[in-house]
Amino acid sequence: MMKRIIVEKDNTILQKSYITPKHRIVFKKHKELSTPKFINKIMKQDLIILPKNTRLYKDYGECKLFVTEHPPQLRTIKIATTLIYKWKMFKLWCKRNGIKDGEKFFEEFGSKGFKIHTFNLLFPYMICITSFSQNRCYYFYVFLSNKPIVDFQTMLYKVPLSNIQRSQTVCMGSSVRIPDSNIFKIPVSEAIDSIFKALFEGSFNSDYKYNILSYQKIEKFFNFFIWSYLSHNDPMQILQEKLIEYKTLGEVIKSIEESYGFDESLKFLHLTNSF
Predict the structure, then answer these.
(1) Domain locations in the chain?
(2) For residues 155 and 143, what is the distance between their CA atoms, to the nearest angstrom?
């Protein structure tokens, strides 16, 4: 015969369920708060609206860290460097692969030879890490992944672009239009969205070429003409292409914590909506 006993003490309910005295007793412990105490607990927290695509939010007290994940998408970038050599390599690649419309696809470049050229490129999953501190500093890291974040062991890969330092922080440059003077006055969600958009508003020049040079043997990413052509004509080649490993998500976050002195004892995990 099923018996159930409920004992309440100090807002804690102990629930016992068992079939017979000889069987194992299962205990379930639940913590209850009165409505006023619950509201008071919530109001004491620093509530924020999370940015779009947020997968992880960590609060270190004075510092906050956000991990956002952006699905595969065509994105427009500007390249401010000479591309004559890569243009020649692209034409050879077209000839080698029997592609007859390659030069026509970039007819404008071939006729004018821009120094600054715009490419429409397909990016796999983009994983961004943005950290803020009360001293008005922020750090922005960007990575690629061939799949969504699964856990802290998810491998992050280098983005085949310039202007990214060895630590994978992005050099945004002075020409990028970020509302710098107001970025800590506007909502955090709006600030982080502004930083991500700014990544594609400026031009990528020849500064910090660590990442792009690491892709020299992967021509589909090293040559923007090939990357762009395949993005529009055979996107699966881009999404399935090998990427250059960097570190796991957990290793990157630990490195950030150590680099900027984030207090691990103050860390609160606010969101793990996919782990």
Answers:
(1) 3-43, 54-272
(2) 10
